Amino acid sequence: MHINFLALVWGYIIPIVLALPSLDSLFQIKANTDSDGGCSSQLPDPLGKWLSESRTLVNAGLQALSDAKNPSASENKVAKDYLWSYFNMSPDDTDAMNLVQTNLQTVKNFLDGQTTTANIPYLFCNDKWLQKLQRSDVAKDVNGNDIFEYDSTASDHLSPMSIENVPSYQAWLWKVQKNGRIVRNNQVPYWSDDMRQYVFDINYGGKTYCTVSNDHLGATQHGTTPSTITLCPFAFTNNKAGETLGDKEPARGLSITDILPRSGTFYHELFHLTIGNEHTPDITSKYSWTEQQKYLKTPDRIPSGYDENYQTLIRRNPETYLWFSVGYWYFQQTQWTSTNQRWSFHSGAGELLQL
Ligand SMILES: [Zn+2]
Hints:
alpha+beta; Collagenase (Catalytic Domain); 2 domains; 3-stranded mixed beta sheet; 3-stranded antiparallel beta sheet; 12 strands; binds zinc ion; signal; MetalloPept_cat_dom_sf; metallopeptidase activity; Lysine-specific metallo-endopeptidase domain-containing protein
């Protein structure tokens, strides 16, 4: 009787406790097509794999913080070295530790389904969910109907309104010059049929975000409700990155930037998505380790166009979290080493350590 009762209870509880949300409960995804941003070819894998690798990476990052705070952990010294090289911080720097810990935890909470949102974000696998328009095209409302404005010369006193004249889009499409004149900026409207909303972005010289450069692997934007992550097709074929986490074997002197998995693009975008683009500046524009290290030589300097110093910006930079998490994950592995030895990337490049 008791055994049966327990079996019954466990039977219900275990799946609830262990089940992590699937990709299609965390995101709105078009699973049955590759057109218009659909992800059919990338499901269930690699996207399912990218989700589980992102969970692994965020846990590795959080473990590094915990090891750095724990003097009795055998990884303590190396973990502190990671903190110093990647974030310019020591475990005693409470503000810095809190910022990094909170950012990692925010991503983890989202991946664990702990984030309550009324608007489930979209995940797109190409940028064709956006239709590029002209600023002078007729504006449409959320039902896809033309928007009209008052026109005393028209017979019905109404004429279609252009997108650039819609008052709520003016902040996206116009700028104020120093002399006070209001002029057009370089943004153009893109229409999303899925959300029936506009996204405003540059023209990319007639191409699109994903096709203009192979450096563009993904993008997150919050201009629409809900927010969106777009993974570019090249992110799925990028041969510089390993197909899976751990595909690339560590080696002496190998840069952390050359041992990243393809899931790193998704992981990077999760920081933009969950923390917000304005709090996650891509300060290393070329995703270069050398660039980051150069900035950390003058940690207190505030670069032009920003209101925070380099070390704070780096503590908000998604790519730094990717490097840090991948680097520490490699340090946690034992499959490439003999007893008491580990590969570490605490200096930004691979080296074999005796623990
Ligand atoms: Zn980014």
